[in-house]
Amino acid sequence: MSTEPALMSLTAVANAIAQKRFSSREATQSCLERIAQWQPRLNAFMAIEADAALAAADAADALFAKGNLSGALHGVPMAHKDMYYDAGKVVTCGSKIRRDFVATTTSTALQRLKDAGTVRLGSLQMVEFAYGPTGHNSHYGPVHNPWGLDHITGGSSSGSGAAVAARLTFAALGSDTGGSIRMPAHFCGVTGLKTTVGRISRAGAMPLSQSLDTVGPLARSVEDCALLLGLMAGADPDDPTAVAGPLPDYAAAARESIKGLTIGVPTAFYVDDLDPEVAAILDETIAVLKREGANTVQVELPDQRQLTAACQLVLAVEAAAFHKRWLIERPQDYGPQVLMRLQNGLAIPGVSYLEAMRWRGPALAAHLAAVAGVDAVIAPVAPVAAPTIAESDVGNSPDAEAVIQRLTRFTRPVNYLGLPSLSIPTGFTRGGLPVGMQLVGRSFDEAMLLRIGAAFQRATDFHDRVPKPA
Amino acid sequence: MTRPSPKAIHAMADVAGVPVSAEVATRIANSIGPAFEGFAAVAGTLPFDLEPATFLVVQAAARSKKA
């Protein structure tokens, strides 16, 4: 284990602070030093609040000196995607329109992490209004991938992926409506958890699609994701869609063996047209899981193209509805690609939208029936490793939608079905770019995904690898 | 399900209160066409009594089965 605080995992640094092996100030200073080194290369942060972070760290240390520990993350510095409302702070949502928007409330997910004792480092870059899978942002510039600065991070949680990968923050909140946690986790070589719709409150998180939006963490390990999920999950009076009921012990689940579990490997769609290196890494990942004691079987899933299409219809309409006022009043203030995609929603009839919503129940039932014999399904997050920023800078060109669809085709079915999915780093290309795989579970069965993902990470070191500054 | 034509999109955007140019309408038609085609096999086939909340019912059943 490294003695440089910023290189430790979230779980390790929280324990180190709690055991007084070093202070919150030392952890915060360590992150700030790395941020100073990396930010000019990555553009991962929207705002860096160094002085305030150190002051908050000192306050955490002073509180601890008096014998008071706020919670499981006492004094741990973190930054999040700039769409989580934090009362009194500017929350840009990656946009020009909200460049000066000051939140008057704090999002439930963020508040729960604050209650656990976290220190705010600043805010992280994102795709404008979380509507794009590449990490480009026409207002604030693209975020660069720490494993290859000419390559995309994926989006829309672009800053979250880059900052966690470069060890600038111990973890970060992202959001996943069409793949926006899993994509940057895959492209940046970190662990990302897209939660079940209803698992974590969305109150105070910028909306994109009320039916598809989910809150979740990007972190350095499955163990860290388990810790964060346990802190954030559960009912919330401010979000009636957040489901009540007892929560599993996610940290304990992540320590369990996978011996005897059965993992499904899709026979089609997710294994079609893969880059050969991604295909080889999928095979190697399955081999590791088998060595750890899991069984694998082939599963025949319902038509995933129909799910992707339904997801596109729902997302386009709901996003356009949220943005309608600004589409009328401030269309010139959107970036070209986001404006283009928002306009798409204007052209989908209400009946088509509601058909897509009505089909969601039967589609989920059909999926659950297809995976009844397995504990999770494994699939690539994307068919390729990170493309270059230049080649994926398609703006609002005629082929933009095709590029977007190609990148998101393995993530959107999961969003439409509202399922949980864990993206874990599973290898690197010969060119040194990370490749991740997603484990897709049953509704509300994040614990199973954490169990499988953690077993994989105990057997491999892909998640521990750290990019070096160019 | 037929993909909307640029002419239809032009009219729909007008009705929505967000008019678009003919060029944008054509671009939108090309962008969303594949989604309509992908969903065509489902559209118009759903049973009468099916409503969106069925999703929550199926999800809840999965949760209680897990518990």
UniProtKB/TrEMBL annotation, chain A:
Signal peptide: none annotated. Gene3D superfamilies: Amidase signature (AS) domain. Keywords: Transferase. Residues 26-450 form the Amidase domain. InterPro entries: Amidase, Amidase_CS, Amidase_dom, AS_sf. One of its GO terms (molecular function) is transferase activity. It comes from the Bacteria. SUPFAM superfamilies: Amidase signature (AS) enzymes. The keyword Transferase applies. Hydrolyzes indole-3-acetamide (IAM) into indole-3-acetic acid (IAA). PANTHER family: AMIDASE AMID-RELATED, TRANSAMIDASE. This is Indoleacetamide hydrolase.
From TrEMBL, chain B:
This is Uncharacterized protein. It comes from Bradyrhizobium erythrophlei.
